[in-house]
Structures are given as structure tokens and as C-alpha cells.
Amino acid sequence: SSVEDLKNDLTQRIEDVDKRIEDYRKETREINKSAIRHSITEIYFEHCDSKKLDMRTKEDLCSLYNAYSSVGGNSFAHELYEEMMTWQVK
């Protein structure tokens, strides 16, 4: 029947949109993860000689790391973060 065909067509369109949304979410998560990892790495190399962070930078680092963890970040930035948490606050 044409009603059944319409229902099937709409169901397929909804599934297609759901898949596109999920693909977009995955891509966005990967982009965000890369950008956050880059920011954490930049903080590390900017301060690794002095091994000191000002309070604002340390707060930013904590926020970045929390966001990084929430999008499934890997151990590389985790190791940098752990090391920076031992540095002096100036």
C-alpha cells in the first residue's frame, strides 16, 4: 500500500539522518580532542623549562584536561597533565 511505502520511506530517511548526525558527532569529537590535546601540549612546552605554571594557566589546564578526558583522550596528554600537576605554581 502507498501508506506502507510512505512509512518505510520516512523510516529510512530518519535512519539516514540519525546516521549523519552520529557521523558528525564523531568527527566533531575527534576535532575537539585534537584541538584540546594541542592546547595541553602547547602549555607543556611553553613551561617545561621552568616547570612553573601561574594559577590561571593551571586552572585552564585542568579545564582542558577534563574536557579532553570527557571526549576519550589518550594517555599522551594524560602523562603531560600528570607531570604539570607536580610543577610549582608561581
Mean pLDDT: 96
Order of helices and strands: HEHHE
Q: How much helicity do the residues have?
A: over 70%
Strand arrangement within the widest β-sheet reads 1-2
Biggest beta sheet summary: 2 strands, parallel
pLDDT < 50 stretches: none
Strand content: under 5%
Supply Rg: 21 Å
Task: Tell me the distance between the termini.
Answer: 74 Å
Which term fits the overall shape? rod-shaped
Structural class: mainly alpha
The number of distinct helices, counting runs of at least 4 residues, comes to 3
Count of DSSP E strands?
2
Task: Annotate the secondary structure layout.
Elements (H helix, E strand, L loop, with lengths): L1 H46 L4 E2 L1 H16 L4 H10 L3 E2 L1
Parallel strand pairs: 1-2
Structure description:
There is one protein chain. The protein has 90 residues and is mostly helical. The protein is 80% helix and 4% strand. The protein is built from 3 helices and 2 strands; from the N terminus they run αβααβ. It has a two-stranded parallel ribbon with strand order 1-2. α2 packs antiparallel against α3. The longest helix is centred in the first third of the chain and has 46 residues, at 2-47. The relative contact order is 0.13. The model has no long low-confidence stretch (mean pLDDT 96).
List the keywords.
rod-shaped, 90 residues, two-stranded parallel sheet, 2 strands, mainly alpha, 80% helix
Q: Short description, anyone?
A:
It contains three helices and two strands, in the order αβααβ. The chain has helices spanning 2-47, 55-70, 75-84, and strands at 52-53, 88-89. Helix 1 runs antiparallel to helix 2 (55-70), helix 1 (2-47) packs parallel to helix 3 and helix 2 runs antiparallel to helix 3 (75-84).
